[in-house]
Structure formats: structure tokens, C-alpha cells
Amino acid sequence: MSEQPPSDCFICRKHRGEISIPGGAIYADDLVYVGHAQIREGQTIAYLGYLMVEPKRHVPDLAALTDEEARALMILVTRLSRALKATENAERVYLFVIGENVHHVHIHVVARYAGAPKEYWGARVDEWPAAPRGGTQEMEAICARLRVYLQKESG
Ligand SMILES: [Zn+2]
Questions:
Q1: Cα 146 to ligand 1 centroid, rounded to whole Å
Q2: I want to staple 90 with a disulfide (CB 3.0 to 4.6 A). Which of 70, 84, 105, 124 is the partner?
């Protein structure tokens, strides 16, 4: 499969502000970006506390990151894990890197909430029917809480 040019890449376009997502950037700098995952096609609500962390640069996978990008991504993921626990009462925070569909590397950062049955632990966590879900408003609210937490922490 040929590499998608950054001009067509959904993630690059989002970073450039050509596409807006509910809640917007929770945090962004020259190297990294994080926002809430969007409502999936065919669904009307989203699993809340499902974040996407991406390098600003269009690279296909973790192997292509510079050390500087890797450090920035992991520091952000670590802070987001703390933020999800503090503001959303996440019991555990999962990270996934899959990358089969979108060839701009992105780290899924996903809250698991108390009460999630064991059958939904791990990669199926967002399939738990009783998980917190919401639309644009709830996603915006979560992003605002996380933004405040990150700003306070970086002081
Ligand atoms: Zn891209």
C-alpha cells in the first residue's frame, strides 16, 4: 500500500485545523497532539475517556519516531493517564497502537472504569454496554476537565 501524503491524511488535516473534532485539542505543541476519539461511524454516542495521542509529524508507525518525539508522546500519555484517573475516575488506563487503517501513528489512550466486567478488560473495553458514553457535549466537557488538569499539573 502506498503511503498516504500528509495533505490527505485525516490526522494531519485535524492538526492543521482543517477538520474540527468535538472538544478540540486537549493539548498540542510542536511535537504532539491529543484529542478525544470521535463518534464511530454508524453510532450516535462515543465511549467517553477514549483519547488519541499523535505526533505532529506524519510518520507511519512508532519505528519512525525520533527520540524527541517518542519522549514527548510518552510524557503526554503518562500525564493523560493521571488526568483520566483524577478527573474521570478511571480505574485503569490502557494504551493501544494498532495502525492498520490510518497510517499516521496514533496511540489510543483508553480509560477503563470501575465495574467493567472482566470479559471487557483489554482491547474490548469500549464494547462494555454500561460504560460511560456521550455525545458532543459530554466529549467537550471531558476535554475541558482534562485540559484544566494538565494545565494545573504543568503549572
Ligand atoms: Zn498524517
A1: 24
A2: 84
